[in-house]
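Following up on my earlier thread - several people asked me to post the actual chain instead of describing it. Fair enough. Here it is, all 363 residues.
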Amino acid sequence: MTRLSLALSFVAFAVPAAGQTTEVKAHMALVHSVAFSPDGKWFASAGFDKAVKLFEFTNGTLKEVRTLSGHTEPVYCVAFSPDSKTLATSSLDKTIRLWAIPDGKPGPEIKGHTDLVDVVAWSPDGKALASGSGSQDKSVRLWNPADGKEIKNLGTHNGSVYSLAFSQDGKLLASSGADNLVKVWDVPDKKLVTDLKGHELGVTGVVFAGDNKTLVSVSQDRTIRVWDLSISPPKEPKKDEPKKEPKKDAPKDKKEPKKEEPKKKEEPKKKEEPKKDEPKNDPRQVKEFGPTPDDLYGVSWSNQTKTIATAGYAGNLSVWNLTDPKPTFTTKIKDVTYCVTFAPDGKTIVAGHEKGEITVTKR
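Reply from S.P.:
Thanks for posting it. Predicted structure:
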Protein backbone atom coordinates (compact mmCIF):
# COMPACT_ATOMS: atom_id res chain seq x y z
CA MET A 1 0.00 0.00 0.00
CA THR A 2 2.83 2.40 0.85
CA ARG A 3 4.61 1.75 -2.43
CA LEU A 4 1.43 2.39 -4.40
CA SER A 5 0.81 5.65 -2.55
CA LEU A 6 4.34 6.86 -3.33
CA ALA A 7 3.98 5.90 -6.98
CA LEU A 8 0.77 7.84 -7.29
CA SER A 9 2.41 10.98 -5.94
CA PHE A 10 4.48 11.22 -9.15
CA VAL A 11 1.76 10.57 -11.72
CA ALA A 12 2.22 12.51 -14.97
CA PHE A 13 0.29 12.21 -18.21
CA ALA A 14 -0.07 14.22 -21.40
CA VAL A 15 -3.25 15.50 -23.00
CA PRO A 16 -4.15 13.05 -25.81
CA ALA A 17 -4.61 13.80 -29.50
CA ALA A 18 -7.98 15.01 -30.83
CA GLY A 19 -10.71 12.41 -30.43
CA GLN A 20 -8.64 10.40 -27.94
CA THR A 21 -9.04 9.73 -24.21
CA THR A 22 -6.27 9.10 -21.67
CA GLU A 23 -6.99 7.45 -18.32
CA VAL A 24 -4.94 7.54 -15.11
CA LYS A 25 -5.48 6.15 -11.63
CA ALA A 26 -5.28 9.21 -9.36
CA HIS A 27 -7.16 8.16 -6.20
CA MET A 28 -7.83 4.97 -4.27
CA ALA A 29 -11.58 5.66 -4.27
CA LEU A 30 -14.26 7.63 -6.12
CA VAL A 31 -13.29 11.02 -7.65
CA HIS A 32 -16.12 13.43 -6.83
CA SER A 33 -14.77 16.79 -8.04
CA VAL A 34 -12.14 18.15 -10.45
CA ALA A 35 -11.06 21.74 -11.19
CA PHE A 36 -8.48 23.81 -13.08
CA SER A 37 -7.14 27.04 -11.60
CA PRO A 38 -8.22 30.25 -13.39
CA ASP A 39 -4.62 30.92 -14.50
CA GLY A 40 -4.49 27.46 -16.09
CA LYS A 41 -1.37 26.36 -14.22
CA TRP A 42 -2.91 23.99 -11.67
CA PHE A 43 -5.42 21.15 -11.50
CA ALA A 44 -6.94 19.51 -8.41
CA SER A 45 -9.08 16.47 -7.70
CA ALA A 46 -11.15 15.43 -4.67
CA GLY A 47 -11.34 11.78 -3.69
CA PHE A 48 -13.35 9.60 -1.36
CA ASP A 49 -9.97 8.29 -0.15
CA LYS A 50 -9.92 11.51 1.99
CA ALA A 51 -7.18 12.97 -0.23
CA VAL A 52 -6.88 16.03 -2.44
CA LYS A 53 -4.43 15.73 -5.34
CA LEU A 54 -2.69 18.80 -6.77
CA PHE A 55 -1.28 18.69 -10.31
CA GLU A 56 0.87 21.11 -12.27
CA PHE A 57 -0.43 21.73 -15.80
CA THR A 58 2.27 22.79 -18.28
CA ASN A 59 2.67 22.24 -22.02
CA GLY A 60 -0.38 20.00 -22.14
CA THR A 61 0.90 17.68 -19.40
CA LEU A 62 -0.63 17.07 -15.97
CA LYS A 63 2.02 16.25 -13.38
CA GLU A 64 1.04 15.41 -9.83
CA VAL A 65 3.08 17.43 -7.35
CA ARG A 66 1.38 17.07 -4.00
CA THR A 67 -1.22 15.24 -1.93
CA LEU A 68 -3.10 17.50 0.48
CA SER A 69 -4.05 15.54 3.58
CA GLY A 70 -6.15 16.81 6.47
CA HIS A 71 -9.77 15.88 5.89
CA THR A 72 -10.85 12.94 8.02
CA GLU A 73 -13.64 11.79 5.70
CA PRO A 74 -14.24 11.63 1.91
CA VAL A 75 -13.57 14.89 0.06
CA TYR A 76 -16.49 16.14 -2.00
CA CYS A 77 -15.33 19.34 -3.70
CA VAL A 78 -12.29 21.33 -4.85
CA ALA A 79 -12.42 24.98 -5.99
CA PHE A 80 -9.60 27.44 -6.81
CA SER A 81 -9.78 31.08 -5.79
CA PRO A 82 -9.98 33.67 -8.61
CA ASP A 83 -6.29 34.58 -8.17
CA SER A 84 -5.33 30.87 -8.26
CA LYS A 85 -3.41 31.22 -4.98
CA THR A 86 -5.81 29.28 -2.71
CA LEU A 87 -7.62 25.98 -3.02
CA ALA A 88 -10.83 25.39 -1.06
CA THR A 89 -11.90 21.83 -0.29
CA SER A 90 -14.99 20.41 1.42
CA SER A 91 -15.75 17.08 2.99
CA LEU A 92 -18.06 14.61 4.68
CA ASP A 93 -16.26 15.65 7.88
CA LYS A 94 -18.47 18.83 7.79
CA THR A 95 -15.52 21.18 7.26
CA ILE A 96 -14.09 23.43 4.57
CA ARG A 97 -10.31 23.69 4.37
CA LEU A 98 -8.17 26.27 2.59
CA TRP A 99 -4.74 25.47 1.16
CA ALA A 100 -2.04 27.79 -0.18
CA ILE A 101 -0.94 27.10 -3.76
CA PRO A 102 1.57 25.78 -4.65
CA ASP A 103 3.13 24.75 -1.32
CA GLY A 104 -0.07 23.26 0.10
CA LYS A 105 0.23 25.06 3.41
CA PRO A 106 -3.09 24.79 5.28
CA GLY A 107 -5.04 27.95 6.01
CA PRO A 108 -8.24 28.47 8.04
CA GLU A 109 -10.43 25.45 8.74
CA ILE A 110 -14.04 26.53 8.36
CA LYS A 111 -16.66 24.92 10.58
CA GLY A 112 -20.38 25.51 10.99
CA HIS A 113 -22.29 23.06 8.81
CA THR A 114 -24.03 20.20 10.61
CA ASP A 115 -23.76 17.74 7.71
CA LEU A 116 -21.38 17.02 4.86
CA VAL A 117 -20.27 20.03 2.80
CA ASP A 118 -21.11 18.88 -0.70
CA VAL A 119 -19.93 21.92 -2.64
CA VAL A 120 -17.95 25.18 -2.36
CA ALA A 121 -17.61 28.10 -4.80
CA TRP A 122 -15.64 31.36 -4.78
CA SER A 123 -17.12 34.75 -5.53
CA PRO A 124 -15.46 36.45 -8.55
CA ASP A 125 -13.67 38.97 -6.31
CA GLY A 126 -12.41 36.25 -3.97
CA LYS A 127 -13.89 37.97 -0.91
CA ALA A 128 -16.57 35.36 -0.23
CA LEU A 129 -16.80 31.60 -0.30
CA ALA A 130 -20.18 29.90 -0.73
CA SER A 131 -20.97 26.41 0.52
CA GLY A 132 -23.87 23.97 0.32
CA SER A 133 -24.57 21.10 2.70
CA GLY A 134 -26.24 17.69 2.90
CA SER A 135 -29.74 16.56 3.77
CA GLN A 136 -29.36 17.01 7.55
CA ASP A 137 -28.36 20.65 7.06
CA LYS A 138 -29.58 21.74 3.57
CA SER A 139 -28.20 25.26 3.96
CA VAL A 140 -26.42 27.63 1.58
CA ARG A 141 -23.90 29.80 3.43
CA LEU A 142 -21.41 32.57 2.74
CA TRP A 143 -18.03 32.70 4.48
CA ASN A 144 -15.12 35.13 4.73
CA PRO A 145 -12.11 33.15 3.47
CA ALA A 146 -9.70 35.56 5.18
CA ASP A 147 -10.69 34.45 8.67
CA GLY A 148 -13.09 31.55 8.11
CA LYS A 149 -16.02 33.32 9.75
CA GLU A 150 -19.58 32.95 8.54
CA ILE A 151 -20.97 35.99 6.71
CA LYS A 152 -24.53 34.73 6.36
CA ASN A 153 -26.66 31.59 6.32
CA LEU A 154 -28.70 32.48 3.23
CA GLY A 155 -31.34 29.80 3.65
CA THR A 156 -32.07 26.19 2.80
CA HIS A 157 -33.18 23.79 0.12
CA ASN A 158 -35.63 21.02 0.96
CA GLY A 159 -32.87 18.45 0.56
CA SER A 160 -29.13 18.23 -0.09
CA VAL A 161 -27.43 21.10 -1.92
CA TYR A 162 -25.55 19.70 -4.93
CA SER A 163 -24.11 22.65 -6.84
CA LEU A 164 -23.30 26.38 -6.61
CA ALA A 165 -22.38 29.05 -9.16
CA PHE A 166 -21.76 32.80 -8.94
CA SER A 167 -22.71 35.15 -11.77
CA GLN A 168 -19.75 36.86 -13.43
CA ASP A 169 -20.43 40.14 -11.62
CA GLY A 170 -20.77 38.31 -8.30
CA LYS A 171 -24.20 39.77 -7.57
CA LEU A 172 -26.10 36.49 -7.91
CA LEU A 173 -25.49 33.02 -6.52
CA ALA A 174 -27.32 30.02 -7.94
CA SER A 175 -27.74 26.82 -5.95
CA SER A 176 -29.31 23.52 -6.94
CA GLY A 177 -30.38 20.51 -4.95
CA ALA A 178 -32.19 17.27 -4.35
CA ASP A 179 -35.51 19.15 -4.11
CA ASN A 180 -35.56 19.54 -7.94
CA LEU A 181 -35.05 23.31 -7.58
CA VAL A 182 -32.59 25.95 -8.67
CA LYS A 183 -32.54 28.83 -6.19
CA VAL A 184 -31.14 32.25 -7.04
CA TRP A 185 -29.79 34.41 -4.21
CA ASP A 186 -29.00 38.13 -4.12
CA VAL A 187 -25.42 38.26 -2.78
CA PRO A 188 -25.18 41.95 -1.75
CA ASP A 189 -28.59 41.85 -0.02
CA LYS A 190 -28.04 38.26 1.18
CA LYS A 191 -31.56 37.07 0.40
CA LEU A 192 -33.45 34.68 -1.86
CA VAL A 193 -34.52 36.19 -5.18
CA THR A 194 -36.44 33.34 -6.78
CA ASP A 195 -36.90 29.60 -7.32
CA LEU A 196 -36.59 28.10 -10.81
CA LYS A 197 -38.97 25.17 -11.18
CA GLY A 198 -39.07 22.67 -14.02
CA HIS A 199 -36.76 19.75 -13.30
CA GLU A 200 -38.48 16.56 -12.21
CA LEU A 201 -35.56 15.05 -10.27
CA GLY A 202 -32.55 16.33 -8.35
CA VAL A 203 -30.61 19.17 -10.01
CA THR A 204 -27.00 18.02 -9.86
CA GLY A 205 -25.26 20.92 -11.58
CA VAL A 206 -25.69 24.61 -12.30
CA VAL A 207 -23.45 27.12 -14.10
CA PHE A 208 -23.69 30.66 -15.48
CA ALA A 209 -23.01 30.63 -19.22
CA GLY A 210 -20.82 33.61 -20.01
CA ASP A 211 -22.93 36.42 -18.57
CA ASN A 212 -25.02 37.42 -15.57
CA LYS A 213 -28.41 36.26 -16.84
CA THR A 214 -27.96 32.92 -18.63
CA LEU A 215 -28.03 29.96 -16.29
CA VAL A 216 -27.69 26.29 -17.25
CA SER A 217 -28.82 23.41 -15.05
CA VAL A 218 -28.48 19.63 -15.42
CA SER A 219 -30.43 16.96 -13.62
CA GLN A 220 -31.02 13.33 -12.86
CA ASP A 221 -34.16 13.73 -14.99
CA ARG A 222 -31.77 13.58 -17.98
CA THR A 223 -32.42 17.10 -19.18
CA ILE A 224 -30.36 20.26 -19.65
CA ARG A 225 -32.31 23.47 -19.11
CA VAL A 226 -31.33 27.01 -20.03
CA TRP A 227 -32.79 29.88 -18.00
CA ASP A 228 -32.91 33.60 -18.79
CA LEU A 229 -32.94 35.50 -15.51
CA SER A 230 -33.77 38.79 -17.24
CA ILE A 231 -37.31 37.51 -17.92
CA SER A 232 -39.90 38.34 -15.29
CA PRO A 233 -40.93 35.41 -13.06
CA PRO A 234 -44.39 33.89 -13.45
CA LYS A 235 -47.13 35.56 -11.46
CA GLU A 236 -48.31 33.65 -8.45
CA PRO A 237 -51.94 32.52 -8.85
CA LYS A 238 -54.35 34.59 -6.80
CA LYS A 239 -55.62 32.85 -3.72
CA ASP A 240 -59.39 32.44 -3.51
CA GLU A 241 -60.93 34.86 -1.07
CA PRO A 242 -62.82 33.20 1.78
CA LYS A 243 -66.51 32.98 1.00
CA LYS A 244 -68.68 35.30 3.03
CA GLU A 245 -71.43 33.73 5.08
CA PRO A 246 -74.88 34.74 3.75
CA LYS A 247 -76.75 37.09 6.04
CA LYS A 248 -79.41 35.37 8.06
CA ASP A 249 -82.93 36.69 7.66
CA ALA A 250 -84.46 38.35 10.66
CA PRO A 251 -86.76 35.92 12.52
CA LYS A 252 -90.33 36.18 11.37
CA ASP A 253 -93.41 36.23 13.55
CA LYS A 254 -94.23 32.61 14.30
CA LYS A 255 -97.91 33.28 13.75
CA GLU A 256 -97.38 34.14 10.10
CA PRO A 257 -97.28 31.09 7.91
CA LYS A 258 -94.25 30.86 5.65
CA LYS A 259 -95.17 31.57 2.06
CA GLU A 260 -93.44 29.42 -0.51
CA GLU A 261 -92.29 31.10 -3.67
CA PRO A 262 -93.39 29.36 -6.87
CA LYS A 263 -90.58 27.31 -8.35
CA LYS A 264 -88.97 28.85 -11.38
CA LYS A 265 -88.39 26.75 -14.40
CA GLU A 266 -84.69 25.96 -14.58
CA GLU A 267 -82.83 27.17 -17.60
CA PRO A 268 -80.84 24.45 -19.35
CA LYS A 269 -77.19 24.55 -18.35
CA LYS A 270 -74.79 25.89 -20.91
CA LYS A 271 -72.10 23.51 -22.03
CA GLU A 272 -68.83 24.51 -20.35
CA GLU A 273 -65.83 25.15 -22.55
CA PRO A 274 -62.91 22.88 -21.60
CA LYS A 275 -60.27 24.76 -19.66
CA LYS A 276 -57.02 25.25 -21.48
CA ASP A 277 -53.98 23.78 -19.74
CA GLU A 278 -51.82 26.40 -18.13
CA PRO A 279 -48.21 26.37 -19.35
CA LYS A 280 -46.25 24.09 -17.07
CA ASN A 281 -42.81 25.64 -17.59
CA ASP A 282 -41.46 28.74 -15.96
CA PRO A 283 -41.21 31.38 -18.75
CA ARG A 284 -37.59 31.93 -17.73
CA GLN A 285 -36.81 28.43 -19.00
CA VAL A 286 -35.96 29.29 -22.59
CA LYS A 287 -34.51 25.96 -23.75
CA GLU A 288 -34.55 22.31 -22.82
CA PHE A 289 -32.26 19.62 -24.23
CA GLY A 290 -32.69 15.90 -23.76
CA PRO A 291 -33.42 13.31 -22.74
CA THR A 292 -29.75 12.45 -22.48
CA PRO A 293 -28.59 8.79 -22.48
CA ASP A 294 -27.96 8.82 -18.73
CA ASP A 295 -28.47 10.75 -15.50
CA LEU A 296 -26.35 13.89 -15.55
CA TYR A 297 -23.92 14.52 -12.69
CA GLY A 298 -21.52 17.15 -13.97
CA VAL A 299 -21.52 20.37 -16.01
CA SER A 300 -18.80 22.88 -16.94
CA TRP A 301 -18.78 26.11 -18.98
CA SER A 302 -15.94 27.21 -21.27
CA ASN A 303 -15.52 30.92 -21.97
CA GLN A 304 -13.05 30.00 -24.70
CA THR A 305 -15.45 27.97 -26.84
CA LYS A 306 -18.80 29.22 -25.44
CA THR A 307 -19.91 25.65 -24.82
CA ILE A 308 -20.85 23.43 -21.89
CA ALA A 309 -19.61 19.93 -21.18
CA THR A 310 -21.82 17.38 -19.44
CA ALA A 311 -20.99 14.00 -17.95
CA GLY A 312 -23.38 11.28 -16.89
CA TYR A 313 -23.67 8.26 -14.69
CA ALA A 314 -23.23 5.86 -17.62
CA GLY A 315 -20.06 7.62 -18.75
CA ASN A 316 -21.32 9.68 -21.69
CA LEU A 317 -19.32 12.87 -22.19
CA SER A 318 -20.94 15.54 -24.38
CA VAL A 319 -20.32 19.12 -25.49
CA TRP A 320 -23.23 21.48 -26.25
CA ASN A 321 -23.32 24.97 -27.79
CA LEU A 322 -26.71 25.86 -26.26
CA THR A 323 -28.26 26.58 -29.67
CA ASP A 324 -28.52 23.09 -31.15
CA PRO A 325 -30.80 20.46 -29.62
CA LYS A 326 -28.07 17.82 -30.01
CA PRO A 327 -24.48 17.83 -28.73
CA THR A 328 -21.72 18.95 -31.07
CA PHE A 329 -19.44 16.28 -29.62
CA THR A 330 -20.14 13.11 -27.66
CA THR A 331 -18.20 10.03 -26.64
CA LYS A 332 -18.49 7.20 -24.14
CA ILE A 333 -15.56 7.49 -21.75
CA LYS A 334 -16.12 5.39 -18.63
CA ASP A 335 -19.02 4.19 -16.52
CA VAL A 336 -20.06 6.18 -13.47
CA THR A 337 -18.79 9.71 -14.08
CA TYR A 338 -19.34 12.15 -11.22
CA CYS A 339 -17.68 15.37 -12.35
CA VAL A 340 -16.32 17.19 -15.38
CA THR A 341 -14.34 20.35 -16.15
CA PHE A 342 -12.87 22.10 -19.18
CA ALA A 343 -9.15 22.74 -19.42
CA PRO A 344 -8.16 26.35 -20.24
CA ASP A 345 -8.13 25.66 -24.01
CA GLY A 346 -11.84 24.77 -23.98
CA LYS A 347 -11.15 21.65 -26.03
CA THR A 348 -9.69 19.36 -23.38
CA ILE A 349 -12.14 17.87 -20.88
CA VAL A 350 -11.24 16.15 -17.63
CA ALA A 351 -13.67 13.89 -15.76
CA GLY A 352 -13.62 11.95 -12.47
CA HIS A 353 -14.86 8.39 -12.01
CA GLU A 354 -16.03 5.85 -9.46
CA LYS A 355 -12.87 3.79 -8.98
CA GLY A 356 -10.38 6.64 -8.62
CA GLU A 357 -9.67 7.25 -12.29
CA ILE A 358 -9.35 10.58 -14.04
CA THR A 359 -9.91 10.67 -17.79
CA VAL A 360 -8.66 13.37 -20.15
CA THR A 361 -10.45 13.72 -23.50
CA LYS A 362 -9.47 15.95 -26.42
CA ARG A 363 -12.27 16.83 -28.80
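Confidence is low (pLDDT under 50) at residues 1-9, 246-279. That should answer part of your original question.
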